[in-house]
């Protein structure tokens, strides 16, 4: 069953008159890893909100040819319930959907194991590092077995070492589960490392400047950052950003 996603001439103008997006069209292939790149305020997060149904476009539409797919959404902050353990935070979407508590907790434990936190099921968020909190957030998104995972700069606040480890964990999970990913980032190098395709948006209102098929070979390991093709791809994208994405 296909769950390809189409963005058809999306435009969004907010009530205060701010035009966030203009005439944005793209096709998101099932099971693919996409990144959205562009300057601050160019509408990247707005695209995710429109896809998730958290906002509605002023013009255009989001099309799911086979009906609405299961979505997971990971925000820049982990947004965990401070008073609840890791396993309770992860089980919450299932319990809200009516899954019996015992079954929800069992599936939550499996999701935490997927992200390397099987020994921290009873830990409260304040007892976890920033990277571990983000792993809990990822587990919470994965527990409902999403077909499309939306990620809004999830690693931006983390140190470079933790960010690199989570990049690798994300690629492993994507390879195992094969959900589609739409990943918002400001980092060209992160986009080149993670993505199969990279969509570059103009400054506000966001329009599609380039749709780049990433030539960097897979599987992606830290060593690929040393390849000439990795650095050449990053340079090409930076040139587009410097030339066309202006505030």
How would you summarize the topology of this molecule?
Layout: E1 5-13, E2 19-28, E3 33-37, H1 44-52, E4 59-63, E5 71-74, H2 86-96, H3 101-114, H4 130-142, E6 148-152, H5 160-177, E7 180-184, H6 188-194, E8 197-201, E9 208-213, H7 228-244
Parallel strand pairs: 3-7, 3-8, 5-6, 6-7
Antiparallel strand pairs: 1-2, 1-4, 8-9
Helix pairs in contact: 2-3, 2-4, 3-4, 6-7
Low-confidence stretches: none
Tell the overall outline: globular
Find the CATH topology of the largest domain. Rossmann fold
Q: In whole angstroms, how far apart are the ends? A: 41 Å
Write the CATH architecture name of the largest domain. Answer: 3-Layer(aba) Sandwich
How many domains make up the coordinates? 2
Biggest beta sheet summary: 6 strands, mixed
* Order of H and E elements: EEEHEEHHHEHEHEEH
Kindly report the average pLDDT value: 92
Q: What Rg, in angstroms, do the CA atoms define?
A: 18 Å
């Amino acid at each position: 069953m296909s769950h390809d996603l189409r963005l058809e001439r999306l435009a969004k103008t907010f009530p205060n008159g701010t035009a966030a997006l203009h005439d944005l069209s793209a096709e998101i292939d099932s099971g693919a890893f996409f990144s959205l790149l562009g300057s601050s305020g160019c509408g990247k997060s707005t695209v995710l909100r429109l896809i998730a149904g958290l906002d509605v476009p002023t013009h255009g539409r989001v099309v799911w040819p086979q009906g609405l797919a299961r979505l997971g959404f990971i925000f820049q902050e982990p947004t965990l319930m401070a008073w609840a353990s890791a396993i309770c935070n992860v089980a919450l979407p299932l319990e809200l959907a009516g899954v019996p508590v015992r079954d929800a907790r069992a599936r939550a434990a499996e999701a935490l194991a997927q992200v390397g936190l099987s020994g921290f099921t009873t830990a409260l968020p304040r007892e976890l590092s920033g990277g571990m909190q983000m792993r809990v957030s990822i587990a919470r998104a994965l527990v409902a077995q999403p077909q499309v995972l939306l990620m809004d700069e999830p690693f931006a606040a983390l140190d470079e070492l933790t960010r690199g480890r989570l990049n690798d964990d994300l690629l492993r999970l994507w390879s195992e589960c094969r959900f589609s990913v739409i990943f918002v980032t400001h980092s060209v190098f992160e986009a080149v490392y993670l993505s199969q395709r990279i969509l570059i948006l103009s400054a506000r209102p966001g329009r599609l400047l380039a749709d780049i098929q990433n030539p960097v070979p897979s599987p992606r390991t830290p060593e690929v950052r040393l390849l000439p093709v990795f650095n050449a791809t990053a340079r090409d994208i930076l040139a587009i950003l410097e030339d066309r994405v202006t505030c």
